[in-house]
Amino acid sequence: MATSVASQQLDRMFFALADVHRRGMLDHLSRGPASATVLAEPLGLALPSVVKHLAVLEQGGFVVSRKAGRVRTYALQPKAWQAMEDWVSKRKQALHAQFNRLDTFLSTQEKPR
């Protein structure tokens, strides 16, 4: 069950990163917390669209929000990146292991004359 939950979370994360506007919002939030209105300005999107994008980022675990009065502020959730880094790292290790096996195999073959 834990693998299924982890897999579903990775699906949400990669889906969240699949959109250029959401990646732009993450870039903006890397400079500090911001409201949906502030995030909407450089993207040229309507506020309802930005709120939907932010909901996807929140479901992906990339951002957290806090409401103070009528303003909801969004901030990056740095630990969210760890799950993706772990997933990528495992694939890189497997790929390097394959190349090492290929290198070993090729070094044992007779060289043509």
Q: Note the quaternary state here.
A: single chain
CATH topology grouping of the domain at 2-77: Arc Repressor Mutant, subunit A
The description of the largest β-sheet is: 3 strands, antiparallel
Q: Order of strands in the sheet with the most strands?
A: 1-3-2
Envelope shape = elongated
Q: In sequence order, what are the helices and strands, one letter per element? A: HHEHHEEH
* Number of separate helices: 5
Name the CATH superfamily assignment of the domain at 2-77. Answer: Winged helix-like DNA-binding domain superfamily/Winged helix DNA-binding domain
User: What portion of residues is helical?
Assistant: 55-70%
Description of the molecule:
The longest helix has 29 residues, at 80-108. The chain has a domain at 2-77: Arc Repressor Mutant, subunit A, CATH 1.10.10.10. It contains five helices and three strands; from the N terminus they run H-H-E-H-H-E-E-H. By secondary structure, the chain is of the alpha+beta class. The chain has a three-stranded antiparallel β-sheet. The protein starts with a helix and ends in a 5-residue tail after the last helix. The chain is elongated. Helices cover 67% and strands 12% of the residues.
